Amino acid sequence: MTPAMNAVKAADAIADAMTACRLPKSEWTHEAHVQAGLSLVLRMGPRQALATLREAIPRYNVSTNTPNTDTGGYHDTLTVYYVWAIDELLRQGVSPEDVVAQPLVSRTAALEFWNRNELFSVEARRRWMAPTRESRSRSPRLPQE
Fold first, then answer.
1. Looking at the 3D structure of the chain, how many domains does it have?
2. Closest among 81, 88, 25, 89 to 53, alpha carbons compared
């Protein structure tokens, strides 16, 4: 099995466990979020991956006793951002096994496009908020297919 196939298989296992609410809470790390997103973008395309994550992450959080509130749990703007970033990397030709290590999907990457207060506002957590900072690269957006 090639490294790309191994990476996709590992990402699929995380996505499947999270969407079935079987992933241990201790394994739901930032990297696991990215891997789940990668798996779903590869399988469904960005638009359907986003729809699936918008439904699955809050449900998963509830199953692990993580409340979805105005200050914690599911964050819509970050979810849209990471689906966009994963899709952008794949469109640029980054191989699946290399996606998780890319700066565009790092834990702090979204701060290139939003200031911290805006990104972690109640509004941004509840629904997609367009980027508020100018960037030299393409700006995150809702997926179009």
1. 1
2. 81
